[in-house]
Every structure is written in C-alpha cells, then in structure tokens.
Amino acid sequence: MAEQLxxxxxxxxxxxxxxxxxxxxxxxNMEIVxxxxxxxxxxxxxxxxxxxxxxxxxxLVTIDEADWGALDAVFCGLPHGTTHTITREIFxxxxxxxxxxMSADFRLRDAAIYRSWYGVEHSATxxxxxxxxxxxxxxREKIRNARLIxxxxxxxxxxxxxxxxxxxxxxxxxxDIVIDAKSGVSGAGRGLKENTLFCESGEGLSPYAVGxxxxxxxxxxEIGVAAGVADLRINFTPHLIPMSRGExxxxxxxxxxxKTAADLRHQLIETYANxxxxxxxxxxxxxxxxxxxxxxxxxxxxxxDRIPGRAIVISTLDNLVKGSAGQAVQNFNVAFGLDETxxxxxxPLFP
Length: 351
Hints:
Layout: E1 5-10, H1 15-24, E2 30-36, H2 45-48, E3 60-61, E4 73-76, H3 83-93, E5 98-101, H4 111-118, E6 131-133, H5 136-143, E7 148-150, H6 154-168, E8 172-184, H7 198-201, E9 206-207, H8 216-227, E10 235-241, E11 247-255, H9 261-271, E12 278-280, E13 298-304, E14 310-317, H10 321-335
Parallel strand pairs: 1-2, 1-4, 2-3, 4-5, 5-7, 6-7, 8-10, 12-13
Antiparallel strand pairs: 8-11, 9-10, 11-14, 13-14
C-alpha cells in the first residue's frame, strides 16, 4: 500500500478548501484527518457542501481544536492576514509539518509591499524568507525541500506561466505589458457579497479593482525576477464573468527588438515540452475556459498583433484547480517526493 500522509485543510468551508478536499479524497497518498472552519465548526462537511454526501469525512472543527502533531502537511485556505500567526504556531510546536499556503500571506517577499497592498502588518517576517513561491513549473527544485510553500494567486498563475519564459529569454519589453483578465464568480470566494449575487453578476460583465488588484504585485515581482528588472509596473484589469469557475487572461505585449510572435511561441513550446500540465495550443487554436474546466491544466497560445512589433498571449486555467487547490496538490506531490501528477490527472470536464 502507498505511503499515507496525514493532511489538514484550514478553511475547508470555502470554495478553495472544498476543491482541495475533493482532490485529496482521490489522492492515494493523502489521508484527511482535520478540517477547520469558523462559522461552520461542529458541522459535518456534507452539511456545508452537499456534493460530499457520498464520502466519509471528519467533521469541521475550529482551528484551536485541530491537532497539528497528527499531521504531515497543512493546506491553508484562510483569508489574508490570518495565516501568519497560525503558521508560526505550527512551526514552533511541530517543525516537521509542511505548510502549503493558498492565501496571500507569504507570496510577496517584501513585507512593506505586502502591508501597502493588504493593509495589515506582516506578523511573520522571521519565517517569510523561507517561503518558496509555489509556481511549480518555475520553482520546482526549491519546492522539493521547502517547509513553507506560498501558492500563487489564480490570476498570477495564468499570467506568469505564459509570460515568465518570455521575460526570462528577453523576448518581450517588460515595461509595456497590458493584461486583460476575466474570472468566474468563485474567484470572489463564498462569502456573501452584493456584487456576486445572481441578479448582480448574471447576464453581465463587470470590471473590478481596476488599477489596484492585489494580484498585481505578485505578477510584477515574478516577471521582474525573470527579467532582472526592479520596480516593474504592469497594467492589469480583472473582470467578473457570470460562470462558476474558469479564468482567461489576454496579455498584450511589445516584442523585443528583432523578435516575432513566432519566437514567443517557439520559446513556450520549448519551455513546456516536458511539463505535464501546460499545453501550448495548436497554432490556429485560441485558448478557451472550456478546455480546462475542473482540471489542473493550463492552455496557452501566442497570436501576432496586427500592430507591428506586438503580440498577444492568451492563457486559461480553472481558478479553483490549477489556480489554487490543484496547484497546491501539485506542490504537495513535489515536496513529498511523489509523482507530480498524482491525484490531479483528471481531464477537463466538457461540456
């Protein structure tokens, strides 16, 4: 029998936590032993999410009731500003536990930038330096030995997988990046918000957080690292689409001198030739959210712009899987020396 690793999910009553549980239930090396929630503590998971009626799961408990010593790994799906303290507490008493954080608390390397975008002080600056940014295809070797893995946000995952190889190879002018991004309503979380009510979000398309979305500094941080450019600034505008899950990002780029859209496409094909979850679409195929729904796959393609010296890169993923829970499981697999695709091999759901 395969080795069983005991896991806990913090914030299991949210969409991200629920998708992590869904994937973990079919993972041959995961045993779910702790599920935490806040207002839903004390309830069985099937009472919070009806699609778990067919499976036996631990009841939801408060964070204070969780037994960290019984776990090998903790997946954190908590709101920003709450993971700092919990992570420090777990590491202090149980340093063997690996934490795979799906919140924003450890993604940004600069605590001052974190404070300016999230409005709270970073209360765990002593352990921030050991956090590895969990973009698996880029930081795989560091993730192997990491105790703290900071999974990227959904928008950054879609954008960075498409643009980091191009920035690193010097094929684009990183000072001129415009990103038009669209996400399903689950990206806003499960909490009650007026703009995500059916009558507010249905049958319409809405921009939000224009010029101030909190995923912007992540994208700037990682493209800046890839290109060797400090204080990078990008243009990023997200939109809410009336569908449950899915995400599509269209990036408008200025090519480096002498480069073509074909050069960009060739670089992406070469970069991801042996990657299990990143697909470069056939030349005449435009990425669509229908290509990735419910899966850990990303589909990318490059299209020449009619404006000379420019190109358009389109990338799509499922915001709850590769954009969150699926990538977290992928990082878990890497960190524990398992086959990277274990438990996340399912193909996209269509129609």
